Amino acid sequence: MMVVGRFAPTPSGLLHLGNLFCSLLAWLSARSQGGEMLLRIEDLDTARTSPAYTDQAKRDLLALGLTWDREGEPQSRRSGFYQACLERLEAQGLVYPCFCSRGELHAASAPHASDGDVIYSGKCRGLTPDQVAELRKLKSPALRLRVPEETVTFTDLHYGPCSQDLAAECGDFILRRSDGVFAYQLAVAADDAAMGVTEVVRGRDLLSSTPRQLTLYRLLGETPPAFGHTPLLLAPGGRRLSKRDRDDSLAGLLDRGCTPQQVVGGLAYLAGLLDRPQPAAPAELIPLFDWGKVPTRDVTLPEDLFPSA
Ligand code: GLU
Description:
- The protein contains 11 helices and 12 strands.
- By secondary structure, it is α/β, with parallel strands linked by helices.
- The protein starts with a strand and ends in a 9-residue tail after the last strand.
- Glutamic acid binds next to loops.
């Protein structure tokens, strides 16, 4: 079966070096298996994203030589499809409205999952139809998935065996926000399935989302892709990279006199694929790609790898 990898950028700012690091590894993993790449713009939340950042993300990927074979429809145009997926879950009795306010969700006693999200208490799980009808007069609800009582297990291509007790460690999660915007978890799983993606390579910050997505695949009757997570790239000093900081972007590096090939070579060096940070094109790295060489611990950019701002 043909491997199909993907780039799934959210155009809420400039892609930062960490986004480019994941993109390089996603591309190398797919290409080293003779696979294809899909590009899908994750502009679900149109209030936080912009067409200018979409165009810039495409230009950045192409400037580095990270090509794609087809482009999926951007998420902002797919709400009808997400609604149909939601209805498939509703038909199984797995969706319920939640009227909790932000304050209630973030009450001091609320337990937190490993990714910092609040584990939902289940307060609205047992509302009667009459209570729902009354509450709907006051506000529109978010919609949550009633998560099955099960431990989800999978083997990450890079981090190996992983498991999560969904009810205890994550809780009922949001499928559609109260403002009508579909949640990332639903959109990404539904899209990857519909667009034929067989391999998802992305940053380790999304490792803990994978059990939720695997559950959605199962409930929607879809075959899940393989998942491979990459370590996160941190700025010198350990600071998180930011999409708001031009210094962390490709444009910032090009301003400082770096060539795209120096950027690719530097990222490949940090990924353990090159012994030294020497200029390289992605295609030259294909034969060198091996998950076994990629570190599992997060990687801090050395001060002197790229010219500093
Ligand atoms: N759109 C997400 C981001 O840019 C990535 C989603 C994913 O890879 O599943 O962070």
